[in-house]
Design goal:
With 48 residues, this protein is mainly alpha-helical. 75% of the residues lie in helices and 0% in strands. It is elongated, with a radius of gyration of 13 Å.
Length: 48
């Protein structure tokens, strides 16, 4: 079982990954629906 500190590290890493994805095209603006799609795609990729 993971400790609370390990879970926090994983959560921070996930947020860092998402920031990197979103910043990969700095001129792009995202709607809320697009952000949801990016996050869902990220999560689905992590489940495999």
């Amino acid at each position: 079982m993971q400790t609370e500190s390990e879970i926090i590290v994983f959560q921070k890493a996930a947020m860092y990954d998402l920031i990197e994805i979103l910043e990969s095209d700095p001129d792009k603006t995202y709607t809320i629906e697009e952000l949801k799609k990016v996050i869902r795609a990220y999560l689905k990729g992590k489940e495999k």
